Write the structure tokens for this entry.
Amino acid sequence: PHVSSPNPDPMTRFIDARIYPNGDLLAIYHADNDTPYGYGMIKLDKDSKLLWSFAQNVHHNMYIAHDGRIYTLTQSYIDDYATQIKHFKSPVLADAVTILSPDGKEQDRITIVEALLGTPYEQMLNNTVSKNDDSKHDYTHLNSVMLLEDDIAPKFPMFKPGQILVSLRNLNAIAIIDPETKKVVWAMNGIWKQQHEAQFLANGHIMLFDNLGFTNGSEKPRSRILEVDPATGGIPWSYTGQGVDTFYSSYHGSEQILPGGNILTVETGEGNKLMEITRDKEPVWRYVVSPRNFRLNPLNNAHRIANDFFDSDFCKEINCHDYNLPDVRKPGKEGDLEEKKRHRNGIPPKDEDSADAPPQEDQAPANIDPDPVPGAHPHGDPDGDNGDGTKDSDTDDDTR
């Protein structure tokens, strides 16, 4: 009922998924070449039987809280905002953070434009990269969500437990929403552009996938992973690729901090590559998925699953003990696994994998400094430019 003329099945795909300890799967599916592009959320059991569906325009990303509630993103066209914001055109593709019960029932919804209006961060809506040429009126483009749980909240004294971190791609911004007031209480622009996958780290920082913010003097932008200090705007760590691993994802892209400190990265699009790197920026392994057909087979997301994650019954069913990998994996011979385990985990055999090659010197990204970054505007850049006289431009794929 929420999609009047749905695209045919070959044009719909899972965009994100999470597995439960018993083998249940929670998934979001998108449609290509349609707007709204979010088609819904479903939960399946281990045998692919439908347990429930949430028939709304769910898109991009989800977070399953410790209490089982599901935080996800929805979108719908709304006319009212075009009268409240002078450069918005009707109808506006309005994003929202939607909170579901563990069994898929809607409990609350926080619309992003409403969350910004009447706050010190309202002016960010004037800096949307879509305001001049977006026929879809996709002014915020919400693409990630994460809850500040009690266990790491002490590392973020400027925020409260239960507040919500979101990424707003078309505002080049990350923001914190208070679910009680339904208002943005903190937001930041920085050196990143059209970012994805903002997430809290246990050290009190925020990590994100910066899709288009790194140029390094070249005409074509490159991607990077940034670790941001929310208190100062400083960038204490970044990764831009090194050696053969040119790092670029014009859309989507994600990162996951692993238990041992390594980082699992996903490049969507031209790279279409899954890779694990160390904090020293060395590749442990890489796996490339059909780079020549990346538009037909895009690699959108990936999640490493802990060895002890699954219930014992389901673990026996899938022989998960055969996949018992160490939490910390190192590059080179010390981190090599026998060929059997490498193949089981989608890692090319050693003669096809260049992860053991001596890494080249990593080139420091421009404007990266542990001190507060010039141009990291806590209230948004009032000029809406990039600091070099140029303006941001939107990408041509509304699902990105």
Notes: Helices lie at 81-84, 112-116, 312-318, 339-344. The CA atoms of residues 128 and 171 lie 5 Å apart.
